[in-house]
Amino acid sequence: MVSTTPATRARATADPGPLRPPWSARALIAAGLLVAAVAVAWLTFWWIGLSPASLAAGLDDTARLLRRMWPPDLPRAGDVAWMIVETLLIAVAGTGLAALASVPLAFVAARTHNGPRRLRPPARAVVVLTRAVPTLAFAILFVRIFGLGPLAGALAVAVHSVGMIAKLLTDAVEETDPVPAEAARACGAGEVQVAVSTVLPRVFPALAGIVLYRLDINIRASAVLGVVGAGGIGVALQTALGSLNYHRAAGIICVIVVLVLLLELLSVAVRRTVLRPGVRRPTVRRRTASRTSRRDLVGRDAGAAGRTAGDTTGTAALPAGRAPHDVGWDRGRVLRVAGAVATGVVFLVSLWSLDLDPGRLSGAWPNLRAVLTGMWPPAFSGDLLMAVLESLLMALGAAAVGAACGLVLALLTAVNTTPWRPLSAVVRVLLVVVRGIPDLVYALLFVAALGLGPYAGFLALWISSTALAAKFFADSLEQLDPLPHEALTSVGARRWQAFAAGIWPQFVPSFTGNGLFVADLALRESVVLGIAGAGGVGYLMQESIATLRYDTTAAIVIAIAVVVYAIETLARIARRHLL
Q1: What's the pLDDT tens digit per position in 456-488?
Q2: Taking the CA atoms of the chain, what radius of gyration do you get in angstroms?
Q3: What is the arithmetic mean of pLDDT over 283-292?
Q4: Are 565 and 523 in contact (CB under 8 A)?
Q5: Do 173 and 205 meet the contact criterion of CB atoms below 8 Å apart?
Q6: Which of 33, 156, 409, 448 could be stapled to 139 by a disulfide with Cβ–Cβ 3.0 to 4.6 Å?
């Protein structure tokens, strides 16, 4: 028998050893995802006939098209200004309508809300469906119902945005402190009064951040809605490409890129100004059963921003160093109120620009009734399933290859892995420009150069997935703990040895999680690219609406929602086990 001393027993109690074996479930999941990514990439190459020879020939055709587009022919300043204004108004109107609809929808969908429970499943179904179907797919439907113009584009932006805004706001509502709401209910307040007086003020900072972020996304989406006749600068781009006026198309693409980049900088500045913490926030109680995500922290901060430590009555927290009697119309409050008023004015102007005359709206009801009645029962077919499979392979294959290429670019970009700082700056600028061009623009160019089919869509998704993955990976690399890498470097380890032992083990969970997120986005975009003729189910959807086969349209929408939700669920489960 082996004897043990009290000191030995104490060490055994204090240090239980590793919580899981070296080859744990996390390693199995990561290895399985890697094998699946390689298999999907190989299957995609076989499906679309991609080979080194065909890739070289395709790039040569694309280079000839780009030479034909040079020099760009910019439209007249007045025309450009009006197209840009219309694009911005579409994004603002759609985002505002989505925010107004998302607030009640989020409260109904939240598990902490004590309203009618029978409404919760339909509310959650609406959130899932609107988030799964891309904006451009909704735009095709609304163009058929309301006709050409910005009204269809704004409604498409609004319906798709409801899914994201309501989902994130629901999380924020569920994370708020329940004590003030319970106190209000105990005093006899109804659920609407509880929501307005105790919950909404706490989640308002989170709501503002979500809406600003969604507005940034919607501006990018609005820039290409005109391709299907839904207004904005995309109308001019589609007209130029349709008439083979490549010089004018190049000029419009340059305008879109500059517009998106400037608005991205403006959006970052506005978010920093509006969401700058101006209150002293108490320490938030942590959960011990699960890890928190960045969205959880946003929602929890929103719930904590309206109370001080020990205050459960809903009293607003005071700025640091300020007594209650000093609260008044200071500069910060004046700026916030002025910003709110200006936002309301801009939103009303954007609604007015949509030409909401009663005659047009009443004329849309017969079209809406025809679309809805024609959608049942959905008509599934073998061609539809093959088109969905093509979109799935195209998206996942492009995401797998894009993640590999994005990792290389991220290593050149991140400050803790780049071999040369000037190279990092150049690559960053290049990635910003590449991300500034919408995926549909890439698809239109490759279709014009290479013809219709999934080959053009794969190349477009490959480029966008590479740029997006490089951005995510570089941010994750720069947020890692630098101590292991510095320790290895200080004892004489080479650069690759320090990376393999000090950085890569920390980076694997973020690499896998961000890679899955890129695949999720690529799957949604693959539907959009098909509308431009770049393969997949999008082309079949546009054709079904044009030929009034709405039963096929309904089947396509259902198939898209199911596939996107399945991929999103699998990605969420994998991230939960890896992160």
Answers
A1: 888 889 998 998 899 888 888 888 888 888 888
A2: 26
A3: 39
A4: no
A5: no
A6: 156
| CA pair distance 428, 407, nearest whole angstrom | 13
pLDDT of residue 26: 64
CA–CA gap between residue 579 and residue 556 (Å, rounded)? 34
Question: Residue 409 — pLDDT band, cuts 50, 70, 90?
Answer: very high
Distance CA 84, CA 76 (A): 12
In terms of phi and psi (left: phi > 0; alpha: psi -120 to 50; beta: otherwise), the region of 104 is alpha
CA–CA distances in Å: residue 22 to residues 29, 206, 484: 13, 39, 19
Cβ contacts of residue 60 below 8 Å, gap of 6+? none
pLDDT of residue 174 exceeding 70: yes
Percent of the chain scoring above 90 in pLDDT: 4
CA distance 356 to 154: 12
72: left (phi over 0), alpha (psi -120 to 50) or beta: beta
173-177, 280-284, 404-408, 489-493: which range is least confident on average? 280-284
Q: Which amino acid is at 16?
A: P
In 3D space, the residue among 101, 292, 128, 85 whose CA is nearest the CA of residue 211 turns out to be: 101
- The burial class, CB within 10 Å (0-12 / 13-18 / 19+), for 439 is buried
Report the pLDDT averaged over residues 257-275. Answer: 69
pTM for the model stands at 0.73
Alpha carbon distances (Å) from 451 to 58, 66, 144, 443: 10, 15, 27, 10
Total residue count of the chain as it appears in this document? 579
Two structure tokens written together for 268: 């970052």
Q: Provide the phi-psi class of 333: left if phi over 0, else alpha when psi is between -120 and 50, else beta.
A: alpha
Average pLDDT over residues 220-226: 78
